[in-house]
Structure formats: C-alpha cells, structure tokens
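Take the subject:
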Amino acid sequence: MWKFIIRRVMLAIVIIVFGSLICYAVIRMLPTSYVERVARQRSTMPGARPYTEILAQLDARYGMNQPILIGFARWGWNALRGLWGDSWFFSQPVTKKFADVIGYSIVLNVITLFLEMMLCIPLGILAARKQYSRTDYTVTVIALTCISLPTFFLATILKYIFAIKLGWVDLYGIVGRYYEQMNATGKFWDMAAHMILPIVTLTLLNLGGLMRFTRTNMLEVLNADYIRTARAKGLPERKVINKHAFRNTLIPLVTYLSYLLPSLFGGSLITETLFQIPGIGYISYQAIVGGDIPFTMFYITFLTALTQISLMVADVMYAVVDPRVRIS
C-alpha cells in the first residue's frame, strides 16, 4: 500500500508541474493582460509617458519580459516557498483573497452535494428496481432533461420566475440592500435566501448524471448471479437491495464521487458568475479575464492538486468498499 501511495504521489507531482506549466504558458499568451490594461490607463493621463514605455516598465516589474520557461521557474520556486505573491487584480495577497471567498463556495457546494446524494441515489435505485415501468421512464426523462439544460438557460429561467415574476428572492448577489441594518439572525436568513437559486441551479444540473450512473450500476448488480441466489434463498427484497446490491453499487460510485472534492473547493464558475456569488469560482473568473497571473496560477495549481488527491483517495476507497480489490 505504501509503495503504491508513494508512486501515486510522485506521479501527481509530475502532473501538477506540467499542468501548471501549460496553464502558465496559456495565460502568458492571452490577448489581454493586467499590465497592458494598466499601461493603457496610465498613458491616457495628462502628461503621461508613451504607452510602450509604460508597458516595458511594467513588464520588467512583473517579469513579463522574460521567456515563459524562466518566468515559470521563478514562479515555481516562489510557490515552493509559499510565496504566491499579490493578486494584480484585487491588490492583496493571493492566499488572503482565496481565504476570504472560499467559504461561500464550500457552503454552496456542500449543500448541493448533500441534496444530490439524498435525491439521486434513491431515485436511481428506484428506477433500477422498476425497470421499464412508468417510474423508470419518469426518472429517466427527469435525468436527461437535467443533463441537457445549459447552466445559463436554467439560471435565467429560475431568476425570471422567482426573482422577477414572483419577487421571492433577489436577482443576484449574496446579501440584500438592507443587510447592514439587520441583526445576526436577519443577516443569516438574508444570506440563505440569496443562496437558494444558486443551490437549486447546481442541484438540478448535477441531478441527471449521478441519477443515471446509479441506475445503470444498480441494474448491472441486480442481474448478477449472487442477487438471484439471495432472492432464491427467500431473503426479503429490502435486504437484498440494501445489504447485497447497494454495497456493490457503491464501487463505481466511488470513482464518480472522487471528482466532487475539487468542485467543493474549486467553486462553480458559471453559476457563481451568473448569480454574482463572491465565491472562488466568480473571483477566479474575474482574475482570469483580468489577466491576473498570480491568482490564476494559485487557483489552477490548487485545483490540480485537489484532483490528484481525490483520485488517490478513490483508489484507496476501492479497497474499502470492495474486498476483492487489493493493492499488491
């Protein structure tokens, strides 16, 4: 086990390094950047120097005039020492800005994950138990509809119905206009109300994939020989499903759920941006569009590391949920 974990850690380090290098090169080649925007703004001021001169000065200051490999090497050496630098776009340390906004994304995605598990797994099992019935077709239609809906379309429909027509919630934001005048309880419920539509959007969008995944794997398990043997022995159907079938259904679900860890901390970029929730997804979108290399590189490296950690956890969990899987 320890040899396997060490090999996986070494492979994860290689993937993180090369993944970060590719992202750094892509960001450096973007048509827009922070230094160009600042140079353009300063060159329009009265008595300012020419744009090219200001741009050259800023490039030298931020190391943008160096080759990509040299710039990446400098960034990597500083990152290893924990020096992630200051965000160009937000004018504060990268780690501080990340710590300020990550809580919103965690709350948003943890609640979404809980709702997904409570809805998708029971519905997927129900559809598999009643294959080709009206219940199965209903669950399948709901799942395919949720998979097919674009994020911006679903979010727009929900905002139009519940924010514009009914006026139950605000269109966007994390707090209302009277937030500062409320007491602690009022602030909590005001923030919770602004989380409703983003949570509903994320839950509906992710509902179909996990539901169909659970149904497919449950059908495969229910057709296995040991399930027929358990039924032939006269075991109650509930015991057959909950004790024998469901445990083996968890095996492929481990792989599916392993990708949820990066989403918990990585935020939901499109949803947070549409509702302007100041989570890590929306903040990272602003940083990427603004050409903020320090924050974007920290965000991408963090997500890459989380993905590798989640995959290693999934491999170990295989041995936990499936006694037949052993690492030699």
Q: What stands out?
A: Residues 184-222 form the longest helix (39 residues). The mean pLDDT is 83.
